[in-house]
Amino acid sequence: DTAVSQTPKYLVTQMGNDKSIKCEQNLGHDTMYWYKQDSKKFLKIMFSYNNKELIINETVPNRFSPKSPDKAHLNLHINSLELGDSAVYFCASSLGQGGRNGYTFGSGTRLTVV
Amino acid sequence: DAKTTQPNSMESNEEEPVHLPCNHSTISGTDYIHWYRQLPSQGPEYVIHGLTSNVNNRMASLAIAEDRKSSTLILHRATLRDAAVYYCILDNYGQNFVFGPGTRLSVLP
Questions:
Q1: How would you write B15-68 as a 3-class SS string?
Q2: Are the CB atoms for A89 and A76 separated by under 8 Å?
Q3: In this complex, do B100 and A44 lie within 8 Å of one another by their Cβ atoms?
Q4: Between chain A and chain B, how many beta carbons pairs sit less than 8 Å apart?
Q5: Taking burial as the number of CB atoms within 10 A of a residue's CB, which of B28, B39, B72, B78 is the most buried?
Q6: What phi, psi does B80 have (nearest 5°)?
Q7: How far is the C-alpha of A99 from the C-alpha of A27, rounded, in Å?
Q8: Main-chain dihedrals φ then ψ at residue A84, nearest 5 degrees
Q9: For every one of its 114 residues, what pLDDT tens digit does chain A have, with 9 covering 90 and above?
Q10: Residues pairing with B49 in the sheet
């Protein structure tokens, strides 16, 4: 049973399209996150949700919007995709804010914008 | 952006201990020190974390310097499955949680 699962694993799409990446965790964690890993392998936090409230919103374009229907899900919706959005996106979860107990990551979604 | 510095790469022989260093001279009093590792095409995997005292778990040990400006991840007996990129990260309630380039560990049979 996968603890943090993301779909799809690979996503190839054209510029200007709108796409969503889904994430689900079955760990009973109360905080979920989205991270972006660029071509240089730097992985940076984008968003986190705790009890359905956005608690961190880094300086990401407003074309990116996290949506959390419940504590176990945090989806990432991206509007008007650009070439620079190509990266690997990781979902993660933790018990409590800030990963005091460590983060559990999904296996990533490789987004390629052409 | 990363607030830690690590060697780009290290090598170890199988079954030998590995000491992976990390410098974090600007660490604040509330920063936890986290270690994660990442295999190709996989998400980061939690290894260990600590605040001030040394920590042990089934995967590794974390030795934290008294002034907290550096730490060392210790793998007691490296196996081929331990070959990965190891990241040392400072975490302050999830703010500015950034993975740097990490240390690529190669394990030789």
A1: CCCEEEEEECCCCCCCCEEEEEEECCCCCCEEEEEECCCCEECCCCEEEECCCC
A2: yes
A3: no
A4: 71
A5: B78
A6: -60, -30
A7: 14
A8: -70, -10
A9: 679 999 999 999 999 999 999 999 999 998 999 999 987 778 888 888 887 778 767 678 889 999 988 889 999 999 999 999 999 999 999 988 766 778 899 999 999 999
A10: B34
